Amino acid sequence: MRPLNLILPAIALLLASCAANPPRNQALEQARAAHGAAQADPHVSSLAAGELDLATRTLNDAERLAREGAPGEYISHRAYIAEQRARIAREAAMARASEAEADQARQEHRARLEERAREAEAARERAEALAREQQQKLEAIEQARQAEQSRRLASSEQLGAEVRRLQSQLPELRAREGERGWVISMQDALLFEAEGATLRPEGRRALENLSRLLRQHPDRNVLIEGHAAGVGADTARHLSERRAHAVRNALVLGGVDGERIVARGAPTALATAGIGVDVLIAREPGEAATGGSR
Question: For a surface tag, which of 60, 99, 201, 276 has the fewest beta carbons within 10 Å of its beta carbon?
Fold first, then answer.
């Protein structure tokens, strides 16, 4: 029996050899071959570049898994997909080449037919009909674009009027129109109990009015930023987040879809004394209400 001190170095050498020379993966080799054949085919690069790119990226995934020592079945699965995508790229190129040849033949046949006066006249009439159809489509697209633009403008004007009306009803509320939309700043004293995140009755009534406004514009996303000034950084961070979520919950209870509302605490450096929350209403329907409100 060999001494243990002779066996252990041999085992370590064997493991190092395995790590330096990972086991061959037949599926990966087949994928490489199929991909190489597709790359070498000039029709593939010109007629099926998208499919070839997809096969390349899939093969790269398989190669990465192999380098990282992933389980063999994972490597084989990605390699199989890469091989199939390489084959699809070649088949697509062949089909498109055949279609191009057929299209060329059809064009030549059409050119011969157009040599006859009757067919030339018929072709002219078809071309005019197609031109009229295209013009009608362009006009319809332009009309739809103008209608949508008018609708958006009317919606924005209506939103601005309603925000200003809300401001006139609540002196503690300040509203301004910024680059990203309307910003409604609500005073700390109106919304919350002293140095807390519990809504006051007056604050709930104000948020009911705001909920009514937001329900009338269901396609506008909303960002709520809570503020907490005059306290320590950690306290301000937690308090501002609690205030933002308290306002969000009140709006959801008021019938506003919670999926369109993002609530967060404002950065401590941006906290404004006297302001409890800023509510940002996105300028455009469907636009994300992102970015700082200040």
Answer: 201
